[in-house]
Amino acid sequence: MVLIRPHHFRPNPQTAADNTFQRETDHDVSRAAFEASTRVADVLRGEGVRVHLFEDAGESHPDSVFPNNWFSTHAGGRVAIYPMYAPNRRGERRADIVEMLKREYRVQEVIDYSGLELDGLFLEGTGAMVLDHVSRIAYAVRSHRCDPVLVERFCTVFGYEPVVFDAADADGVPVYHTNVMMCIGTDIALVGLDAIVGDARRAEIARRIRDTGRVLVDLSAEQVASFAGNAIELRDADGERILVLSETAHRSLSGEQLATLSASCRVLPIDVSPIELAGGSVRCMIAGIHLDPR
Fold first, then answer.
1. Dmax over Cα atoms in the chain, in whole Å?
2. Per the confidence metrics, is the pTM higher than 0.90?
3. Per-residue pLDDT for 22 more than 90?
4. Alpha carbon 106 to chain centroid distance?
5. How far apart are CA 231 and CA 101, in angstroms?
6. Which long-range contacts (CB under 8 A, 24 or more apart) does 143-146 make?
């Protein structure tokens, strides 16, 4: 997995308009964010997860801590590069990270969609899409950052079935990224079902997830707002499954929900509260690697 450690982190003013999870602060939280990123790297390395930690010492990219939005990796040696909605996020794309992937893993092909920014088309990676790698389904909430045409194009190339839907918070504001309300694990799924617009569509998506054999953990609007959907399943050094989520998310879950999750994998909360001011949590910080090592 790839992590970016920011040296000058701050909530991004260019993303505040459509990211209701974002919070303004008058305090300089750059040091706390640096320490939170370090903590995630240290905890995951302690679990035997292979972590590639990169530094961002610049001041131009306040959201660089969220690399999963600009690239994703896929079995068979493929890497996708994505077009970003906010102009000051486009410079987060880094050739040194792509070169590291080529050097350390078997990369056959890099497919770069970033030029579509000039056409006003955006698809922010595994923020915009939550990928079921087993059943080959790409769940995607329609938004400024997730163009359905690009979802279809991605799915055609990478072999997924697109499931595009609308979702909104309790105030009717569209959800900006699918991965704040949905996490697909090996045999569990956390989903903010109430956010999905339309009773029939909501029931259909719940059925699709259950039909894949997963236990569906339904998240309330308050739990989604606490980043309970922004979790990611990883494997530790022994190949055991870990569900990584923030302490904010962990505190929001009920005892029954945690018991359901713990029956599938070990639940690992990490404090990333300074990062959450930018409207993303642990899952947003992690760019997974689905490539074969050299």
1. 48
2. yes
3. no
4. 23
5. 24
6. 143/18, 143/174, 143/175, 143/176, 143/177, 144/18, 144/85, 144/176, 145/18, 145/84, 145/85, 145/176, 145/177, 146/122, 146/177, 146/178
Q: Which two tokens stand for residue 151?
A: 């979802």
Q: What span, in angstroms and rounded, lies between the C-alpha atoms of 127 and 39? A: 22
Token match 């320490």: residue?
35
**Spatial contact of 161 and 153, defined as CB atoms under 8 Å apart:** no
Instruction: List all residues 6 or more positions away from 56 whose beta carbon is below 8 Å from its beta carbon.
Output: 4, 5, 6, 7, 8, 64, 65
**Alpha-carbon distances, residue 61 vs 26, 49, 239, 273 (angstroms):** 19, 27, 35, 19
From the list 230, 224, 234, 218, the residue with the least C-alpha distance to 272 is 230
Q: Are 52 and 3 in contact (CB under 8 A)?
A: yes
Region 270-285 average pLDDT? 94
Rg of the chain over Cα atoms, rounded to whole angstroms, equals 17
> pLDDT averaged over the chain?
94
